[in-house]
Design brief:
By secondary structure, this protein is α/β, with parallel strands linked by helices. It contains five helices and 13 strands. Helix content is 31%, strand content 26%. The protein has a ten-stranded mixed sheet with strand order 6-5-4-7-8-9-10-11-12-13, with helices on one face. The chain has a three-stranded mixed sheet with strand order 1-3-2, with helices on one face. A hairpin with a 6-residue loop joins strand 11 and strand 12. Helix 4 runs parallel beside helix 5. The longest helix is centred in the first third of the chain and has 30 residues. The protein is elongated, with a radius of gyration of 37 Å.
């Protein structure tokens, strides 16, 4: 009877390459990967520098009336560098926000060779003067409707009726908020605020367009407004009684206010309440 012979099974496993061979293979793979990355980077850099991606236009959007589009581009363009991909958007935004009257700029890339810039202009609410000293309209600082101080050419301000606000450095928003709350109270007296000042000690003073001066004193915004409301509700009766316009009022008294009417040399202690 014939017997089938089987191939003998190998008894030994193949030997692993020596460690130095493995190290050389790994090093070669790493070098190849690095070379591929470098080549890809160089290729990408070359592609991004092609003239096809050079900026050909800057689109301006938004409501801007203080500057023309040409003026805005002329002011910002010298500060821009790079093409569509290499340009720094943060620096580009800063370049547009440095243009006079521009409050905020939003910059976007538009394929393949344009920038889209949306602009927001400052809307002036008042002239601003920081610190103490004489009031002076020949300045170049304004406070916008958001309570932010910005610089502008006085000749660009068409509204000659803007009030002058004064206060310590950094208090523009607070002074503007007070002016807004006092505005309707004095408007009911057929007058408006020409100047409003907050002293370093926290005391308020108003100069009206009639030339009358009103000391409002210190306190919280609500306390000051409440005193002015009492003053505004009783002043018309006093003016009607003496038939004289207001020259000066002092609301710093605890139980009322004192005033001086034009042409009347006495100080009338108007301890009157509603």
């Amino acid at each position: 009877m014939a017997r089938r012979l089987r191939n003998p099974r190998p008894t030994d496993q193949p030997e692993a390459p020596p460690w130095d061979v493995r190290a050389m293979n790994l090093a070669a793979a790493l070098l190849f990967a690095v070379a591929a990355l470098v080549f890809a980077g160089l290729l990408l850099t070359w592609l991004l520098r092609l003239p096809h991606f050079n900026l050909s236009a800057i689109e301006l959007r938004g409501d801007f009336t203080r500057n023309s589009a040409a003026t805005i581009r002329a002011n910002a363009a010298p500060r821009l560098a790079g093409n569509l991909f290499s340009i720094d958007l943060a620096q580009t935004q800063a370049a547009f926000e440095a243009v006079p009257w521009v409050r905020r700029a939003s910059v976007q890339r538009v394929w393949p060779d344009r920038l889209s810039v949306t602009l927001e202009e400052h809307r002036p609410a008042a002239w601003w003067q920081a610190g103490e000293g004489q009031d002076n309209r020949g300045q170049d600082k304004l406070v916008n409707v958001q309570g932010e101080v910005f610089e502008a050419n006085p000749g660009d301000v068409e509204d000659e009726g803007l009030p002058v606000l004064r206060g310590p450095e950094g208090s523009a928003a607070e002074v503007l908020a007070m002016q807004r709350r006092l505005l309707p109270v004095f408007a009911a007296l057929d007058t408006r605020i020409d100047r409003l000042r907050l002293s370093a000690r926290g005391s308020w003073r108003v100069l009206l367009d009639s030339g009358a001066e009103v000391e409002l004193g210190r306190g919280s915004e609500d306390e000051v407004v409440a005193r002015v409301q009492v003053f505004g509700s009783t002043l018309p009766r006093l003016i009607a009684r003496y038939e004289r316009p207001l020259e000066y009022a002092d609301l710093r008294h605890a139980d009322g206010y004192a005033l001086r009417l034009k042409g009347v040399g006495t100080v009338v202690p108007a301890l009157m309440k509603k």
